[in-house]
Design a protein that fits this description.
This protein is an alpha+beta fold. The protein has one domain: GIY-YIG endonuclease (3-Layer(aba) Sandwich), CATH 3.40.1440.10. 41% of the residues lie in helices and 26% in strands. The chain has four helices and three strands. The chain has a three-stranded antiparallel sheet with strand order 2-1-3, with helices on both faces. The relative contact order is 0.25.
């Protein structure tokens, strides 16, 4: 049985956004807030989950992550709301 994959957007304590993928979103969010997540978020905790999308495969999630990372800040804000 394969796990679902998630693309997520976090809002960091400094107001910036971080986009990533995971197959265990709760664990990943906990890791980010513990300073053990991505290097980008380590100095910007706490982070808040603002958006998530669910996918069946890692490949689908990675492709969507790439698309989201290309968006401008205002486009990301529109996606979140």
């Amino acid at each position: 049985m394969s796990k679902s994959w998630f693309v997520y957007i976090l809002q960091c304590a400094d107001g910036t956004y971080y986009t990533g993928i995971s197959n265990d979103l709760a664990h990943r969010l906990q890791a980010h807030n513990a300073g053990k997540g991505a290097a980008y978020t380590r100095g910007r905790v706490p982070v808040i989950l603002k958006y998530q999308e669910k996918f069946n495969t890692h490949s689908e999630a990675a492709q969507r992550e790439y698309v989201i990372k290309q968006l401008t800040r205002s486009q990301k804000e529109a996606l979140i709301s």
